[in-house]
Specification:
DNA binding (chains A, B); homodimer; Two-component system response regulator DesR (chains A, B); six-stranded parallel beta sheet; alpha/beta; Arc Repressor Mutant, subunit A; Tscrpt_reg_LuxR_C (chains A, B); DNA-binding (chains A, B); 199 residues; 52% helix; DNA-binding; WalR-like (chains A, B); 10 helices; Rossmann fold
Amino acid sequence: MIRVMIAEDQGMMRDALALLLGMEDDIEVVAQTGDGEAILGVAREARPDIALLDVELPGRSGLDAVAELRRGGVAVLVLTTFARPGYLRRAMESGAAGFLVKDGPVEELAAAIRRVVAGERIVDPALAAAALTAGPSPLTGRERDVLAAALDGAAVADIAARLHLSESTVRNHLSAAIGKTRTRNRIEAAQLARDNGWL
Amino acid sequence: MIRVMIAEDQGMMRDALALLLGMEDDIEVVAQTGDGEAILGVAREARPDIALLDVELPGRSGLDAVAELRRGGVAVLVLTTFARPGYLRRAMESGAAGFLVKDGPVEELAAAIRRVVAGERIVDPALAAAALTAGPSPLTGRERDVLAAALDGAAVADIAARLHLSESTVRNHLSAAIGKTRTRNRIEAAQLARDNGWL
DNA sequence: GTTTTCCCATGACAAATGTCCTGGTTCCAC
DNA sequence: GTGGAACCAGGACATTTGTCATGGGAAAAC
């Protein structure tokens, strides 16, 4: 019996996946949560063989929990809406055993779970190619911070205050990020970075 | 037997919903599509009693299809990830019989379908309140266009070219939109408008 | 037939943004 | 211990953005 836990914030999707997986003879859903913060605690409690993690979760990204779950002997299958190369890269670097996009048919899911438990690694081939061509993030830590803060339309002064920096420094980081992403302003830069999973 | 069609772009969600609804004794899933353009054609073919429509679909928003389905005698239940007041408003004004957010448990879905078929209207109370307090969109048609074009970080010159306007006109529309939304720049204005479902 | 609203457009101005330069610090790698 | 990279900061400058005043045309409302 394969013990599975599910971390997914959309209630309807979470329930549906749990019900469907529960119908498989060799799979048992032992825990569910919609909260990123709760993942590790729930896993410690339920001791699953494998965890199904969404990337975008309230509280804490599923990606942040991968390494720790791995250390606890739990295999991780990352499940996401967005096919972002940087997500795949981070998931794999943290030791995830598989990366699945929610676009595919449900049958893929149970199959992927079985293959992961059997020791295989699962990756969408098209996405893997994209991750390789896009390369790793060219951004430095601070550039990342500044872009993330710029994403919602904050002015330079706001960003500076939020990060405890001078306005000059913020503008320098922004300019560098715009240059590296070959975009024309902070917004394009921030959105490109987000879409590549660099934030 | 209630004949249901599903328009939803996430394959896994679509399959899962179809399977779950198919397990109900009185519900039969007669058609599925992941393409907004295809909704009307599929509905004509399958002649469902009720259509489950996602808002964000490739090709065409589910909201655009509501009025026409309604005219064809098909009840519409709008199902969306995002609880945006403007979506609810538009759905209801186009004649949708219900509006459900994907956050809730799956049991809600079958129940909502039965109630809609019985002639009731289904609305999330919290969301209805938000829609009422937020009021209708204050934006004029052109302001809407300009904000939508600004959403991805385009410069004034780009927007002007895209909409065949002068740069001055674009700046005037943007300024008006910023004023109406009580935001501080085009980005905040565009994001607020998007989050309210005004685009 | 007048008022209102929306649309388009200009010009002028202040403010914010993006670029480039300089120069300082720390930390790591070779 | 030297070079490189990341970090912080300031100043100067051109460009872009946002605001405001003004005015004309079209359509709908009264």
